[in-house]
């Protein structure tokens, strides 16, 4: 398989990887929907896993495109594109993606793992969403939601980050993708 | 006619692109509608459309969300006092704001649900990227049944390895068969009528 | 710092010839820093938002009707009094009568109110205003007698 890969250009391989990561995001969100949910409020955000992985797999431009395609795609598939839900999702995903990428820019894999990236990303995402919720949905009382969102962000960030670490350690696919990303 | 049949009928009647465009326009109409009553009417219409489109709806969730939004807005009292229920005070302006936000929120959700579908094709290189991702998504989805709770990561990984390898022959820019409905007189008629009605509603009343 | 999370992937019970080993997640330096910061942010926000006093509000009462407005937002409000429209201004966290159809205009000359428990009134109009909210711990005086 890797022999045939080497005949493709680096750009094509990268585009293929980005497209695959977007597809993975859609898939994981469908999987998460299937999982039993102990607490209705806790969204694990499995669909953020590909973006987390993409921090190390894609160059910045493709990375941002991936975020937009993920949000757009999920908004269309779930039928929420024109609603505030999509707006919140976009703001949250964008904030999270930028924070995670920024963190990786200043700290290598030796200093911060997916757990740290994920927690930081989850917090950034929730902060952005609370800010928007204050304007569009809740009004001044949004401040009462802030501690809850920060707490939930920390927890979901920890869980997803741990899952990402486990996945990264055990995934044959990821090893292949990393080779492709290096070109 | 059950939900799946309604879905088929809806998707067969409206081409995905035009439907989405109508939805976008109607969302704008909603946002420009100044009165709560007007928005409530649009909510009722959107709710009907979403039901007709065969999308999965949850009345309980909708009511909960709306109650939550109204409740959150009532937390900060504002305006003339209308009633008090123990520690909770219901004030006029806060109630109005809460109702407006709740109605707007859900109306947009229903418009989106009625007007969006997976057959939507976006233009440009972005659209090609999106279409390619959707195709891959459907390929991976085929493995959904093989994902077990015990070997969760291993199962997902196996599915990924399989589909990732498959894609060797697929070019990104491949045109996707449009599975969206062809334009029809009836479909176009409904879309145009709804759009005109929506635009007219902006001028009716105060 | 090592922490095992083998129960998630459950490799030990997996009968298939699996390449999964019982790997453990290693937390790195910045992970701990970030988690600590997140905890701090959470605690701080919870303390400030749930522990602090509720913001004060102005209650305007006329015969049979009450209006409530937050004191922290500048606003001009008009209510119907016995003699006509009475105008009240909320500015810089304090409220005062701006205009009234009464004869003496005593209400307009009164000092603006801003502390919980303070009140003012335009008696001829039958319009009362008072500040409600949690008692401010920083209040130095219970009352001032002149």
Could you characterize what this model shows?
The complex is a heterotrimer of chains A (183), B (206) and C (146). Chain A has 183 residues and is mainly α. Chain A contains 8 helices and no strands. The longest helix of chain A has 25 residues, at 10-34. Chain A is globular, with a radius of gyration of 17 Å. Chain B is mainly alpha-helical and 206 residues long. In chain B, 67% of the residues lie in helices and 5% in strands. Chain B has 8 helices and 2 strands. Chain B has helices at residues 3-13, 16-32, 36-52, 59-74, 92-115, 124-141, 152-166, 185-203; strands at 79-85, 88-91. In chain B, strand 1 and strand 2 (88-91) form a beta hairpin. In chain B, helix 2 (16-32) runs parallel beside helix 8 (185-203) and helix 3 packs parallel to helix 5 (92-115). Chain C is α+β, with helices and mostly antiparallel strands. Chain C folds into 2 domains: 2-51, no CATH class; 57-132, N-utilization substance G protein NusG, insert domain (mini-chromosome maintenance (MCM) complex, domain 2). Chain C has 3 helices and 9 strands. Chain B binds chain C through residues 76-81, 89, 91, 150-154, and chain C through 8-11, 13-14, 16, 18, 20, 57, 65-70.
Reconstruct the topology from this structure.
The complex is a heterotrimer of chains A (183), B (206) and C (146).
Chain A: H1 2-5, H2 10-34, H3 49-57, H4 60-77, H5 84-106, H6 114-138, H7 146-170, H8 172-182
Chain B: H1 3-13, H2 16-32, H3 36-52, H4 59-74, E1 79-85, E2 88-91, H5 92-115, H6 124-141, H7 152-166, H8 185-203
Chain C: E1 2-4, H1 6-9, E2 24-26, H2 29-51, E3 57-61, E4 66-70, E5 75-80, E6 85-91, E7 94-99, H3 106-109, E8 119-122, E9 127-132
Provide the CATH topology of chain A: Arp2/3 complex 21 kDa subunit ARPC3
Strand content of chain B: 5-15%
Query: Poorly predicted ranges of chain A (pLDDT <50, ≥5 residues)?
Result: none
Instruction: Quote the average pLDDT of chain A.
Output: 88
From the N-terminal CA to the C-terminal CA of chain A, the straight-line distance is 14 Å
Q: How many helix segments of chain A?
A: 8
E-strand count of chain B? 2
If you compute it from the alpha carbons, what radius of gyration of chain B comes out, rounded to the nearest whole angstrom? 22 Å
Structural class of chain A: mainly alpha
Low-confidence stretches of chain B: none
Compute the number of structural domains of chain B.
Answer: 2
For the record, the CATH class of chain A is: Mainly Alpha
Please give the number of β-strands of chain A: 0
Which word captures the global form of chain B?
A: globular
Indicate the percent of residues in helices of chain A: over 70%
Largest sheet of chain A: none
Let me know the largest β-sheet of chain B.
Answer: 2 strands, antiparallel
């Amino acid at each position: 398989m890797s022999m045939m890969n080497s005949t493709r250009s680096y750009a094509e391989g990268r585009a293929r990887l980005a497209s695959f990561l977007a597809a993975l995001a859609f898939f994981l969100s469908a999987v998460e929907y299937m999982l039993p949910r102990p607490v209705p409020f806790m969204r694990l955000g499995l669909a953020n896993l590909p973006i987390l992985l993409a921090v190390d797999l894609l160059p910045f431009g493709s990375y941002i495109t991936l975020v937009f395609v993920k949000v757009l795609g999920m908004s269309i598939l779930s039928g929420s594109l024109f609603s505030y839900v999509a707006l919140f999702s976009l703001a949250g995903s964008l904030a999270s993606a930028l924070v995670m990428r920024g963190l990786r820019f200043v700290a290598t894999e030796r200093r911060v793992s997916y757990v740290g990236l994920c927690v930081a990303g989850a917090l950034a995402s929730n902060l952005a969403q609370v800010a928007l919720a204050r304007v569009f949905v809740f009004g001044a009382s949004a401040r009462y939601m802030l501690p809850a969102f920060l707490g939930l962000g920390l927890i979901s960030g920890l869980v997803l980050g741990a899952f990402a670490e486990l996945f990264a350690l055990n995934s044959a696919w990821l090893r292949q993708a990393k080779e492709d990303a290096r070109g | 006619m059950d939900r799946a049949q309604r879905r088929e009928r809806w998707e067969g009647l409206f081409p995905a692109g035009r439907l989405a465009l109508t939805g976008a326009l109607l969302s704008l109409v909603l946002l420009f509608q100044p009165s709560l009553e007007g928005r409530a009417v649009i909510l009722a219409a959107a709710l009907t459309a979403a039901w007709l489109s065969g999308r999965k709806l949850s009345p309980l969730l909708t009511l909960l969300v709306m109650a939550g939004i109204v409740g959150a807005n009532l937390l900060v009292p504002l305006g003339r006092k209308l009633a008090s229920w123990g520690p909770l005070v219901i004030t006029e302006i806060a109630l109005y704001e809460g109702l407006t936000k709740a109605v707007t929120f859900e109306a947009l959700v229903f418009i989106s649900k009625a007007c969006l579908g997976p057959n939507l094709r976006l233009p440009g290189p972005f659209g090609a990227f999106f279409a390619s991702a959707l195709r891959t998504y459907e390929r991976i989805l085929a493995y959904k049944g093989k994902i077990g709770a015990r070997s969760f990561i291993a199962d997902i990984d196996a599915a990924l390895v399989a589909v990732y390898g498959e894609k060797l022959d697929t070019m990104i820019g491949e045109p996707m068969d449009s599975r969206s409905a062809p334009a029809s007189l009836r479909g176009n008629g409904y879309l145009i009528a709804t759009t005109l009605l929506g635009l007219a509603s902006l001028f009716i009343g105060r | 710092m090592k922490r095992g999370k083998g129960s998630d992937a459950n490799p030990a019970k997996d009968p298939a010839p699996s390449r999964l080993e019982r790997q453990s997640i290693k937390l790195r330096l910045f992970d701990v820093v970030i988690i600590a910061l997140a905890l701090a942010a959470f605690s701080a926000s919870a303390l400030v938002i749930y522990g602090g006093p509720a913001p004060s509000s102005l209650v305007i009462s006329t015969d049979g009707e009450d209006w409530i407005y937050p004191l922290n937002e500048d606003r001009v409000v008009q209510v119907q009094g016995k003699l006509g429209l009475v105008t009240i201004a909320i500015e810089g966290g304090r409220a005062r009568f701006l205009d009234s159809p009464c004869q003496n205009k005593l209400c307009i000359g009164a000092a603006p109110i801003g502390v919980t428990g303070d009140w003012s009134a335009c008696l001829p109009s039958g319009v009362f205003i008072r500040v409600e909210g949690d008692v401010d711990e920083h209040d130095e005086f219970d009352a001032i007698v002149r």
